[in-house]
Amino acid sequence: MSVTALLEPERAEAITVVPHAAQEHFWQSDGSAATLILTVPGPISVEFWRWTLAPGARYEGNPHPAGTAETVTVLTGSLILEVDGQSVVVPPDTTATFVGDHPHAYVAGEEACDFLMTVHVPHSR
Predict the structure, then answer these.
(1) 20-42 pLDDT tens trace
(2) Taking the model in full, what pTM does it have?
(3) Which of 41, 43, 46, 55 has the fewest Cβ atoms within 10 angstroms?
């Protein structure tokens, strides 16, 4: 079950506007936070997140259901993305995509890192 299925009401409008200030943090710790902005439903649900990681902060992500993909778009700072034992630095103004159904972690570099994340979760059959 997606995080959205647990937290968000069903949306039936043709256009949905979501003020970010109205959203609560899903996770936060020592200057770091993750906020689920919204989920776009469909055959593949897309969760849209905003993250802030304090300098050097690390978040271990649990593997999602099989077939899940993620993207991260770094706005400020740099993000060290770890997936299945591999590590890559994602600089500002750069987007990376990776398999979300493997162990993964997000680590901020020496500065705080702000990034947007999407999680593409296929529906169970």
Answers:
(1) 676 777 788 888 988 888 888 88
(2) 0.80
(3) 43
